[in-house]
Every structure is written in C-alpha cells, then in structure tokens.
Amino acid sequence: MTAPSAPSVPSAPAAAPVPVRAGSPELLRSVFRQHAAGVAVITAVDGVRPVGFTATSLNSVSADPPLLSFSIGTGSSSWPAIAASDHLGVHILAEEQHELAGLFARSGADRFGDRTGWRPGPEGVPVLDGVLAWLVCRVVARVPAGEHRVVIAEAVAGHSLGDGRTEGRPLLYHQGRFNALRD
C-alpha cells in the first residue's frame, strides 16, 4: 500500500537575480526612503529658551507604562537641551503643518518666532498650538546608538483631538518629502 501523495504546490516563476548590497549608511537611507513615517516635533527647554526639532523616528514602546521612543543625533542643536531635560514635549503634526515641520527641521531657523504658536505646558515644556495631539513626557533613558541617542520617555500629560479615528489627518514623511495620506 502506498501513502497518499501530498497535493502539488505550483512553483513560482524564476525571478531575475536581485543585486544584493552590503550594509552601509547609503543602503539604510535608501531603504528608509521607502518607509513612510509620521512626523512629530519634539520640544524641550534649554534653561529658559525653548528648543525643538522635527522627528520621524517616534515609536510607541509600551501602553502600560505609557512609554515612547525617538532618536536624536548628538550633533543636533537640540541635543544639549534633550540631554539635560527631565521632561519634553512630543507633538503629532497634521497634514497641513508641513511648513511647521520644515521650520523645526531647518538648521538655524527661529523655531519659536512669531510664526510659531506655542505656550508653556505642564512641567514648563513648550506645547505647540494646533497639532493633532501632544504629550509631555518624563525622560526615563537615553540609550547610545552610534552618533545618536534613543530617548525613552513616559507620557505624564497630554491632549488628543477627537478619539483618534475621526479628527484630523497626520503629516507623513516619505521619499525625502512631507506628504499626506491618500484614501
């Protein structure tokens, strides 16, 4: 008696060989240009002066406790304030806020000038006006990662428009440009 044969699975057509590149900064940049990321602005206080920068590296880490992470280069003008701050602000930008994202991404810009609506929030952290959502977070760790630091922070206060399903649409970063969602 012979065992029943397994059903045949059609084989995929042979694909052309794909060139493989060695890991490098250029390869990583090329790959992450394909990855759409949400756009956030991180703020802190440097003595009495507000500072901030645009980040696309924001991640949710844990719901309980409510932790998030982002990365920042140690050569960034905002790094000294982030390195010294106990608390910082995290702002989720709306799709129409590409100019604000560009302002906070530009080196040497007057980020908290007349064009930027903001106010001191909990713990004295600068809170931007008109964003989809914001959090004030307590820094719990700064982890070395090459020429960057991964900052892990716990949300202690904040505000979000609506229920997260009905209000506003987020700004995205893809292929080196700020973009909006498409339906």
TrEMBL record:
The keyword Oxidoreductase applies. InterPro entries: Flavin_Rdtase-like_dom, NADH-dep_flavin_reductase, Split_barrel_FMN-bd. Keywords: Oxidoreductase. It comes from the Bacteria. Residues 32-180 form the Flavin reductase like domain. Transmembrane segments: none annotated. Pfam families: Flavin_Reduct. This is Flavin reductase. It comes from Streptomyces bambusae. The lineage of its organism: Bacteria, Bacillati, Actinomycetota, Actinomycetes, Kitasatosporales.
